TrEMBL record:
The chain holds residues 394 to 684 of 691 of the full protein. This is Bifunctional diguanylate cyclase/phosphodiesterase. GO terms for cellular component: membrane. Residues 24-277 form the EAL domain. Keywords: Membrane, Transmembrane, Transmembrane helix. It comes from the Bacteria.
């Protein structure tokens, strides 16, 4: 009997593995189609400066509206896009869209904000990343100072010299560069001062567990490091007033997280921008669906 159960267990395992592989293969095909059919849209998550009581930019986050499966999380499709190289046309699209939308908000009279776009390490291998960025700016008329790119520590594991020279050219255009999810990746601290970056984004993992002694120590160390290297600091994943006060107390006043605002569509951002500039106090409840 035990033997049978054992066999069954293996079969169940195999089947679920197949299911996972089938979904993945399906998504891979669908992703090619999605790039052509424009099945993507962008949400924007605000950043908040608690010391000035003002909006401090926002981050563009891609979403995929799959015709049969509904909204699929980037955590699932970005790795597939990276492996297939589809991340390159997708990044070209979101870069253009984020610049267009940002320019439009400014033309409508909202106080100018810097919008950041996430860059996978894979797009640095495409060789025309700089072109892609310049096209997005010239095609929309957005001033480069209102564009930021976010990279991750995983770039430290690849052709670092090639990437540094590309980052320097991007920066020469006047675009800011942020290190995303800092502390969660390769953390080769020795390479950090070689990178032309302006901002460290403290990974949300540390913020979530800030009450644990070790996470608290890591947050303090990152803030000290950032200040010593003259970098701006921003904390990700701030969900509570307690986390916000803790970070602010340590000198990290710029924050991003559900406490300040979820990723929102363009109209919800309009509402957020108008209410957040009127009131100096924080919590702005934006109506509409939580996205
Ligand atoms: P990320 O760049 O670190 O973005 C932050 C993620 O954390 C977003 O998830 C955001 O919705 C979520 N988040 C923000 N505040 C909170 C909070 O208070 N609590 C919690 N629990 N989560 C919060 P999202 O939009 O699902 O994106 C996941 C990741 O997918 C991003 O992490 C980024 O690495 C990647 N991604 C998203 N859009 C793009 C894109 O256009 N290009 C590339 N290359 N990657 C992207
Ligand atoms: Mg990011
Ligand atoms: Mg992040
Ligand atoms: Mg992340």
């Amino acid at each position: 009997k035990a033997k049978e159960e054992g066999k069954n267990r293996y079969r169940v395992f195999d089947e679920s593995l197949d299911q996972g592989m089938i979904r993945r293969l399906g998504l891979e095909n669908d992703l090619r189609r999605a790039v052509h059919n424009q099945e993507f849209f962008v949400l924007y998550q605000p950043k908040w400066d608690a010391s000035s009581g003002k909006a401090a930019g926002m981050e563009a986050l891609i979403r995929w509206r799959h015709p049969e499966l509904g909204i699929i999380s980037p955590a699932e499709f970005i790795p597939i896009a990276e492996e297939t190289g589809l991340i390159i046309p997708m990044t070209r699209w979101i870069m253009g869209e984020a610049c267009r939308q940002n320019q439009q908000w400014q033309e409508e009279g909202f106080e100018p904000q810097c919008v950041s776009v996430n860059l996978s390490v894979r797009v640095f291998e495409s060789q025309n990343l700089l072109d892609m960025i310049q096209c997005a700016l010239s095609g929309t008329g957005l001033d480069a100072k209102y564009l930021e790119v976010e990279i991750t520590e995983s770039i430290l594991a690849s052709d670092i010299q090639g990437i540094i020279s590309q980052l320097m050219k991007i920066r020469e255009l006047g675009i800011k560069i942020a290190m995303d999810d800092f502390g969660s990746g390769y953390s080769s601290l020795g390479s950090l001062d070689k990178l032309p970056i302006d901002t460290l984004k403290i990974d949300q993992l540390f913020v979530r567990e800030y009450e644990s002694g070790s996470k608290k120590a890591i947050i303090q160390a990152i803030i000290t490091l950032g200040k010593q290297l003259n970098l701006e600091l921003i904390a990700e994943g701030v969900e509570t007033i307690e986390q916000s006060e803790f970070l602010n107390g340590l000198g990290c006043s710029i924050m991003q997280g559900y406490y300040y605002g979820r990723p929102m569509n363009e109209d919800q951002i309009r509402e957020w921008l108008s209410t957040s500039t009127e009131s100096s106090t924080v919590l702005v409840q934006v109506s509409g669906p939580q996205l």
